[in-house]
Model the fold of this input.
Amino acid sequence: MKFVLASQNKHKLAEMQSILSAHGVEVVLESEIGLHVDVEETGSTFAENAMIKARAVMEASGLPAIADDSGVCVDALNGAPGVYSARYGGPELDDVGRYRLLLENMRGAKTRAAHFTSCIACIFPNGDTIEAEGICPGTIAFAPQGDGGFGYDPVFFLPELRKTYAQLTPEEKAAVSHRGKALAVFDGKLREYLKER
Ligand code: IMP
Done:
């Protein structure tokens, strides 16, 4: 079965492919099937935004589509950057600029508690949907560490492992991450869905 991933993000694709391929699900990027759907993420929750993206790509491609909407929510910043994680600080910032801004905004914070959330939405051409969520608690490091992964990975610290996401191998990250957890839930729901057909 082939799913189109409603994203241009190769890192997300790699993480999703490595987990879902084990179950015979092939995930391709929009660009691989000649598609570039520009969707405005107008939802106020990760779940809403994931479904907005998946629906737009399903409608444009006629294929089952899957989307992940994710971000980091920081307690001391009242949940920011949250659904605005990709746009934090404006369009001129890159990944490094965004995590530097986050560190800057955390100066003097009383707590460094944070969590990553991933909401996965999948929609089939017949309108059926599957949704899944995964959360990974952690803290915001005082300085970046590690060079793996993407986005806020160098500053997202896992106290139990004493490492940031960026210091984990892709397999280690998938075992504990918000996306890994959401994909595990998604995988179970997809199996159930396919069994009933
Ligand atoms: P989205 O593409 O709108 O879901 O944006 C998600 C944003 O959240 C990304 O651009 C990253 O900045 C951040 N993000 C999501 N997942 C991760 C992750 O696994 N590691 C680091 N940053 C992430």
User: Anything to note?
Assistant: The beta strands are 2-5, 26-29, 65-74, 113-123, 129-140, 156-158, 163-164. The radius of gyration is 17 Å. The longest strand covers residues 129-140.
